[in-house]
Amino acid sequence: MEDSQIIELYWQRSESAIAETAKKYGKLCRHIAMNIVGNLSDAEECENDTYVATWNAIPPTRPNVFSAFLTKIVRNIALNRYEYNKAQKRNNEFDLVLDELEGCVAGKDTVESAYEEGVLASILDEFLEQLPKEKRVMFVRRYWYSDTVKDISKRMQISESKVKTTLFRVRNELQDFLTARGVMV
Amino acid sequence: MTGKDLFREVGNINEKYITEAEATKKSIIHNVAFRRGIGTAACLVLCVGIFAITRTGNKSADAPAADSTPHYDSAADGTNNVHMNMAEQDAVTDTGNSNGWEEFLDFIGDSEKSESPAERENYTPSNTPEEVVGEEPEFNDREEIVYDYQLLTQRLQSYSNEYEELLKTDAFVVVHGTIKTGGDTWASFLEDSQSGIAAKVDLIEFTEEGDAIISAIVYDGETYHIVMDCTRDAWGKTGIVEYEYKYLYTDTQDGRTDVVLSDMELEGEEIQKAIRTDGFDIHYLVQYIEE
Is the ipTM value over 0.90, yes or no? Predict the structure, then answer.
């Protein structure tokens, strides 16, 4: 079923909206959640919470890109779940993702005025726009989808070593970019 | 801002980048397959072209029917236009078809044009050209470097835990950041491994309580394999740990050298940055100053 048709089901408050969403995007949502929370039961709970959140958001929202709208929700829900679980259990793979981003901002102070909701995201968009496609895709797969290095290597048909090296260089470039834009000093 | 904050902010990027990354898998696989196909086809065309040109240059009036692959004609017909392929050469007896053999050797670029398969089969040491006779083969007394987890573990376990005894070994011994013995051994290992030559060394460090942590480091020409024996550490619970990395980097600042391992291929200042900043995918192997 096309995304526009699924969105219309939400607007009509049809319960089949969730069934159709699960059918088309359930696997993707679970994958993203799994990358963050690290276990299947929590990932499935995040997936279900995502459907509830989507049901509550549409209407009034009418997303332009339904897949991106959905996956943003599951990502945030999974991150909250990860924080809730952190005391009891760690997800080593996702911790690596956060550690890598921590290295990006390490030793720098954030300028509060630049760190306003929306401003930093648009700066990140600017950064991503000027990256070559391969680097950009790798960055998004790692820090948006939280894919493992191995997953990215398989997806892009390149060695894990090259993935690690490229991500390392992109993080350095991001740090320089954020500093140049006055986000960090 | 923390790494988690940045992660949340990345979540707000434009949707087009998200869909681009999701769509990439299919397009990349198709592109890779296409490029590989083109590359393979180009190589085949080149090889066939070279061979065809070579054949055309030596072709006589009685040349066999045009055929892109070399083929073998029976010696009985006495033709001089015999072309042998690699699979058939061992079955050939001396047919006197030296023209075809030389042509084949030209094609494969073999410098020993006078030697037919029959001659090679009859080869004895006495046929060796004079300039070779009398030369002693170079004796390689380097021990073959092979990574064997079981053997390394056994060897590590056989080390004493007595400080004085450990100083007498061939290992590179570092005590709380200061080299005690084995500096030359370590330098040789670094030089060989970073030149791509297989090498090995044992590294001994000590905990605060004086227990030895002994590691066997083996570079097999491509990968650094490490087996670390922590069983002497009364407070540690890691036992014997095994790991591997592709690259080893060193960085010396203010007289202190850091040696790290990583799977990232780094250059120049990247090495310093990776070593000096937290959060990068590197493994700290050892840190020391010269005594």
Answer: no
